[in-house]
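Per-residue structure
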Amino acid sequence: MTKLYVQAITFGSAVFSQLQKKFENFSANDSGATAVEYSLIVGLIAVAIITAVSLLGTNISNLFNHAACVVRSGTWTAATNTCTP
């Protein structure tokens, strides 16, 4: 009967040792951290692009409207951003 207990304890410590090794390997693996870092960088770039487009959007729209007005030989009024033919 004592031999059975010794085998059970040995088997239990072997399982614990395997679990400990798997946990150490899992905690040493940092490939997921790299993916998170890249996704944060992409997110920040997206925020910068959205901010730039929203700040410049109206000015660029007025610029193209002004160019279209000049092509049609109209008169562009900058104060109201309107074109009169």
